[in-house]
Fold this sequence. Notes:
This protein is α+β, with helices and mostly antiparallel strands and 189 residues long. It has helices spanning 3-6, 11-14, 30-42, 97-106, 135-142, 182-188, and strands spanning 51-54, 64-68, 74-85, 90-96, 109-120, 123-134, 151-159, 162-165, 171-172. It contains 6 helices and 9 strands.
Amino acid sequence: MNAIATQKLSWKDLIEVRVVSLKNFYSLEAGEALVVSELRRAIPRSNVRDVEVFLPAKDVGVDVLLVNLVTKRSVSIQVKESVLYRRSRRFWFTIDEKKINMGRRIVDFYVFVLYDMIEGSGRLSLQPRYVIVSEEAFEGRLGKKKLSGGKYHFYFRLEDNKVVEERDLRIPYPEDCLDNWGLILQRAL
């Protein structure tokens, strides 16, 4: 009998072990995961096999990509998130001017995730709401805003299920921009 066949070998003897340090090149944010979940839920059953949601492996200004695998149409999305500041009843976002300039070439929609605080049964819970704004509409609003330290500041307030932006000027957003995933899906389907 062969000597190797009678000898017990450990797994270390069978494979070469190499230690490789891995760099964390991507971190999924909670808001991005929520947007992916909402998009998957909003895709009509008739298109569920034709449309897929992807997350880029590198930060290039796009957080989520919706792709129609049949027509090859794609929709790029930048996600921003904020909790409710209870005292002022506002949601506060900052966006670096450089990221907006980069996004002007590749972002189709901005999705602002608002973590609204709901009181019930003596406990607070978070309810995500989504302000969905096309790049064209977003860019039009930027012309009315002021830069502060190289950043744009956005103060959103929800009033009767409508979105109002209160920094610099009081700017109402289109009525259909709150929780309306159809705005994004219509470009991909």
